# Entry
Amino acid sequence: MTVDQVERELGKLRMNEDGTLALRSSVLNLVVVTDEESAPEITQSISKLAGQHPSRAIVLISDPEGETNVDIGISAFCNVQGGGGTQVCAEQVTIHAEGPPAEHLESFAGPLLVPDLPVYLWYPGEFSPDSPEFSGMARLANRVILDSARSEDREQSLRRIAALLDEPEMPAIGDLQWVGLSPWRSLTADMFSFRERAEELNKLRAVEVLYAPGGECRAFLFAGWLASTLGWEAESSARDGEVRKFNFSGPTGEVSFEMSPSSPDARLRRVRFHSDDYSFQVSRHKEISDARTTIMKGDELLAERTVHLGSFDLGVMVSEELQYRGHDKAYDAALRTAVEMLDL
Amino acid sequence: MVIFGASGDLTSRKLIPALYDLASQRRLPLEFAVVGLSRTEMSHEEFREKLRGALEEHRAGKFSEDVWESFSKGIFYLPGDSKKAETYKELKELLGKLDSERQTEGNRAFYLSTSPSLVSAIVENLGEAGMNDGGNGGWSRLVVEKPFGHDLKSAQDLNADIRRYFDEDQIYRIDHYLGKETVQNILALRFANGIFEPIWNQHYIDHVQITVAEDIGVGTRGAFYEEAGAMRDIVQNHVMQILCLTAMESPVAFDADSVREEKVKVLKAARRIPEDDVESCAVRGQYESGWVWGEEVEGYREEKNVDPESVTETFVALKIFVDNWRWAGVPFYIRAGKRLPKKATEIAIQFQATPHTMFSHGDTQGLEPNVLVVRVQPEEGISLKIGAKVPGQGFEVSSVNMDLLYGTAFLEEAPDAYQRLLLDMMLGDPTLFIRADEAEGAWSILDPVMRYWSENKKVSLYPAGEWGPEDADDLLEQDGRKWRRP
# Structure
């Protein structure tokens, strides 16, 4: 199947009953590099994106070890409008490339991109930033979406992503772990939004993070976000079993930061802040989609709130990422600080 | 119709299939006859069999035994050397015989599908044999394939040679691009729609990008390409025609003189690039090995019949200004090349940004100026990039691409370019053919660049599968712009 044939077949999917073609409206290109095993889950996530992000998705399933072979499939996800009309919101081209062509995925993706629209490159699994394939693909993209937690060595994964930030030709980077952290950052910021409590930010003395196993990337990014936002400098680190302890020097004194894994399914399970007089907490209990915030002065409960976090599956997180265009300065700073912590 | 160079590829691949289609659609008179002429020894029957095989290949699924039976009765072949006078004596006798046997009424079309070096000799021989006038009061027309010369001087010489025997209204210089429905649709888009004309000028347009990209390499045409290069093969003809159709004023009528007059005005207004400015206005590139659509391909210098140290360009990028009221200050960026990521011919009209944005910078991150793209091939259509509010509680504005493939809005299959042009030629309508001053005008724009390149043997390399060399990016970046990805 040539590029022309793929375009023609995609066109046919938009054909009305009278043989004319419906207008295609798109806002972005989404290029996904994945493996055979993950492809069905990815396709399902893409189908969920159709309504909010009308796009062309190019799913590249790569197997460089196999015999040279290329298979191409196309599909469309339709969003049925009121009045019985049908509108195609998203197209998907799936390319299985085996053997040497799998190392030159950009030669498939480039010609299929819809012109004049941003290109999001998503690696849902482990990625190799040093591979020629990654740099070739990154050159096509305006934003690269990674998942730091998908690597066996998560700390190394954070370091590798941070190194990408310094590459001059590299497009903006997004990390699904950062997206997953978004409600936690938002709820944390809310607790300090009153002027009186905002002053407590400068008086924080200790932070405790209890995260689910596998959630250390989020924990580090959370610590990096706090430190880079509040102007803390990482001074020292210590390890006690699985518990990691850090000391920061802030504008008004030292802050201890402790992160430890817990066993339940939920990932970042609790964050707790202690100032001289107050303690602030965001927690997520077994009811996965709800989070609770509490503010205490000594033993007195000053404020309490429970919010619904909604679904945070893969499709939702990618959808969040697709709303960003350029560099996310908060993420870049958080990641750099997280890596400084790792390097202590 | 007499085809010189009848044993060549063009005859079996394009000309005969186009004539067959016309015959099939009953657009050719019953009396119509084709005479193939070339040096290869063949009988009428052998020639017919060769063409039948080609038709079965190029019209697979549409070949009709009955149509062929009728059409092939009008196919003849004459072996001969087109440089020798006796060939023309035999040709004249054969045509006279066909006149009486098939009542072709003395109408003659001579299609020169030969090496450019033979054109002057054929024209002279036709003229000396008295075939520049139709027999028995009929007409005589000459169809000349591109390239029309290899520079301004040779084009002028060629035109002078031809006009010694044929008047301009007998000459049909063919650029098959103009026969494409899609190229003609540029005229329809511009002059059959009232909404574009008011904004089609320097007040609203920032710049124009014309891309003629091929993903294929030179293949078996290495020897030809070594002589021609992308400039002569593509830019001088196809690209300059697209430039003319994009930039021209509205002709007073859709007839040969009115349309071609307006095209010539564009070519006259195009600013000549001084040799001192070639480096900053033109880029010459050549593909190296690389990957195209999952396939590893060799570099130009490794292709068959190509000099291993060749500096022939397989990619050209140019910045051209059309100095008139409509286009003053609007650059036309042009690029054409082989072994680019995809096959695409497009005209992208990039409009100016809004003079003031009331939205905050953060809300307009994904917003870019409007772009109207007229896509000529592979899938004909137009797309328009516009800003739209992203659904949600904020007021984020982002670019949306609306894409309409209008080729398939009509269920009738578009005719092949040669089919259209051959019919126009037989009907005596040269509107979609190149006039002598058009061909010379295009050369005069490119001549200084080619002269500079012939003296400065520098070519910028690019890997196959990339959008040209880095110098091409610099050409726009120096103006604060960038190429769009077709």
About this structure: The mean pLDDT of chain A is 88.
